[in-house]
Amino acid sequence: MQIAHSSDIEKILQQINVLVIDDNQYMRKVTRNLLVNIGVKNIHEAADGIAGLETIRALSPDIVLCEWEMPFLNGAELLRIVRSPGVFPVSDVPIIMLSLHGERWRVLEALRLGVNEYIKKPVSGKVLLDRMVSILANPRPMVHNGEYYGPEPRRQFPESPRRESAPATSALLPDIAAG
User: Fold this and answer.
1) Distance CA 157, CA 138 (A)
2) Strands (E), 27-127
3) Burial 29-66 (b: 16+ CB within 10 A, else e)
4) How much is the average pLDDT of 73-80?
5) In angstroms, what CA-CA distances link 76 with 1, 40, 83, 152, 164?
6) Residue 170 has pLDDT above 50, yes or no
7) CATH for 6-151?
8) Residue 3 and residue 133: Cα distance in Å, rounded?
9) Taking 90 as the threshold, does the pLDDT of residue 168 lie above it?
10) pLDDT value at position 169?
11) Residue 176 and residue 134: Cα distance in Å, rounded?
12) What is the pLDDT, as a whole number, of residue 158?
């Protein structure tokens, strides 16, 4: 997709379908308002991971924004299911983990599971817009490498996550963390 001008961006944002999966109704409303303010018109919501999976299957959205911590099926489990080509029908859908949790181990785990972007809340409209435009304008090809299925990594990541409490920062993980 070639995006040359801001008018192209505006047109694309008005046409895409975005699914927000978050168990917190207030956070869904905040995210919806951010999306509306950057020009997105078609916004759908799911209150948990199970409803999110059903909505992804039915809607086949252009981008999914998903919280990490949710009851029944959390964001990591949702990613595992979605990134199962041949099993899940929409395994290539771009997913942005938009979460209150920014620990480095969570970011690394999300990357290992095939997330396109990881943004820590609170997030500005500009950061969200930049990440969405990046996904739409410069989509990374989906790759299957061993157990990994997801967007081609920007760089290699370590083999095993460590449950560290250090916050994810752009210095630690360029291009993916912070918001």
Assistant:
1) 21
2) 42-46, 63-66, 95-99, 117-120
3) ebbbebbeebbbeebbbbbbbbbbbebbeebebbbbbb
4) 96
5) 28, 25, 11, 18, 17
6) no
7) 3.40.50.2300
8) 9
9) no
10) 35
11) 12
12) 54
C-beta separation of 149 from 113 below 8 A: no
Per-residue pLDDT at 157 exceeds 60: no
0.85 surpassed by pTM: no
Cβ neighbors of 154 (< 8 A, separation 6 or more) are: 140, 174, 175, 176
Contact 118, 179 (CB under 8 A): no
Query: What's the rounded Cα separation, in Å, for the pair 159 and 106?
Result: 14
Residue owning tokens 């938009």: 98
Retrieve residue 62's tokens: 């252009």
Burial class (CB in 10 A: 0-12, 13-18, 19+), 120: buried
Q: Is the pLDDT score of 51 beyond 50?
A: yes
